[in-house]
Amino acid sequence: MIVGIGQDSHRFLKERTDKKFVIGAVSFDDVPGLDANSDGDVILHAICNAITSISGVPILGGVANEMCIDGITDSKAYVEKALKTLNQTIVHVALSVEAKQPRMQSRSDEIRQSVASILDLKLSQVGLTFTSGDELTDFGKGLGLQCLCILTAQ
Question: Where are the domains of the chain?
Fold first, then answer.
């Protein structure tokens, strides 16, 4: 068994645009998009970083930046690239999201199913928790959000 850890965070855009808010490849309406070259999907970015911590191949900041320049901003494509660098099989992924907004708990199973599908896992192999952060960080104050990921592979 091997364990990888990843983290990602983004601020919300200050001005409303047509950019959608996406997390775990699930879109939310009435929430500002994230300030990022890509869709800013912190869950998928944290997963990429967890894979990088195992494979040693930097996807975000490297491969993903080149893909953004080519107009590929869907973070699912970055995860697909990261998965190709992994010589192990993912057996579980644990995700923790800190954000004051939006409230995502009611869509937790939808997000988990999306992540499970992307990683070719069963729903039971994807754990997801949310915390508001009690205004102790910028994420808890509603300025953005972050995701921590622990990925177990064998």
Answer: 2-13+20-153
Q: Which residue has the tokens 């994230």?
A: 34
pTM exceeding 0.90: yes
CA 116 vs. chain centroid, Å, equals 13
Residue-wise pLDDT for 76-106, tens only, equals 999 999 999 999 999 999 999 999 988 899 9
CATH superfamily of this structure's domain 2-13+20-153: 2-C-methyl-D-erythritol 2,4-cyclodiphosphate synthase (3.30.1330.50)
- Cα 62 from Cα 69, distance rounded (Å): 11
Residue 81, token pair as written in the block? 């690239």
Query: How remote is the C-alpha of 146 from its chain's centroid?
Result: 8
Q: How far apart are CA 52 and CA 33, in angstroms?
A: 25
DSSP helix, strand, coil percent of the chain (3-state; round to 5): 35, 30, 35
Contact by Cβ (8 Å): 31, 15: no
For the stretch 33-75, pLDDT in tens is 999 989 999 999 999 999 999 999 999 888 888 888 888 889 9
